[in-house]
Specification:
CATH superfamily of one domain: PDZ domain
Strand order of the largest sheet: 1-2-3-6-5-4
Helix content: 10-25%
Number of strands: 21
Radius of gyration: 37 Å
CATH class of one domain: Mainly Beta
Strand content: 25-35%
Shape: globular
Distance between the termini: 50 Å
Structural class: alpha+beta
CATH topology of one domain: Pdz3 Domain
Length: about 475
Amino acid sequence: MFEYQNNNYENRNQMYDYYQMPETGGPACNRPSGPKKTGKAGKLVKKIGAITLSAALFGSVAAGSFQAVNTLIGPTETSDNTAATENTSASLLKAAAIPGAASEKGSLDVSDIAETVMPSIVSITNKSVQEIQNYFSMFGYGGQTIPQETESRGSGIIIGKNDTELLIVTNNHVIENADTLSAGFIDNQVYEANVKGTDPANDLAVIAVPLESISADTMSQIAVASIGDSDSLKVGEQVVAIGNALGYGQSVTTGIVSATNRTMGSNTQVVNTSADGSALPTYIQTDAAINPGNSGGALVNMKGEVIGINSAKMASTEVEGMGYAIPMSRVSDIIETLMNETTRTKVSADQKSSIGISGLTVNESVNSIYGIPSGVYVASVTPGSGADKAGIKKGYVITGFDGKTITQIQELTELLQYYPAGETVEITVKIPATGGTYTEKTLSVTLGAAENSNNTQTESGQQEDKNNSIY
């Protein structure tokens, strides 16, 4: 496994001691009074005097030169040290002043990051009841199904709180179809959570845990994550992935940014991701290990800032070290919108609702061949239903429900589980016009009881596909 490591270089300044000979104001040499020396002795004295004078002059010049150089270099070193201190302080402020970070490293140690970011990461458990075929139906003896409780696990990131709730962002595929959700924190305490908002097209969801249910001890140990700028990422930059891998609890892996702005088409074999056929979303590609259970966890830069939400990995025996994360800068506005939506819980069986239509998903092939917009094609409308009273007709395409984009029938059925009969919602439809064009309109629809719509299904005089259900 490739390991990326930052090399730290220590700058050492050599220290010099400079000594200057004292200057005197008298004559260079005082000769004692006496007879004048001549001959060889006189010549020798002259030579000694010349050498002494030259040495003195050379020493003065050298000392002055060294002093000048020292004077010039000194301010530069001070300036550099000041700049380094300012940059480090700014970096630490952006990284939320992570404890134990040493300024000379230039970036944080992985252990420092794990210690600081882990209180912001939660494990999420999704429990649901699904209908599965019984044993005999596999051999052609009857097609009955039986309910079975299933459990899946993922990760989430604490991104904020309001007056009554702690807010956690995760992947939509982590929480979809959940009958109950629970969030486990750093202190191993588990609390029930509810859906705040979802965006299936971008594989995002925000869940909420009531603050009144969280103990003071847990609140003292958790933290809100610091969000970074994913647009400033560079290929080769070291990153850390933190999440609930395989449901074993929090774990840490590290790697590098392999690529940015990656897109994945519908024919790409990717685990746990979603893509809008009309506009493919972009991802951060990394070789940090992202395993099942890591979905919804954090991809963190070396400042301890969350720059991505772990979402997918390549599912192929031929591929190794290709994980994907949703860039925070791309989805920050979407997350803020989800954080401010109304928290909802699944309604009871006697409160289940219906729009009063049967429909089909308009996929990419249908869109390209017939020019029908992506969404849910209305195949029929139940007379007297909320859809009928609101003016929805056969041939319309439902593209939005209560402000959320609808691209397939499964998204519509998932949302209806959180809306009781009798509630009025805004539904966006595309209406066929002349020349193969469509006009958009938003209608207010009062949801009816699900069982009533199903009972009146056969009362419709329109031809219906027997495989269609009433929604």
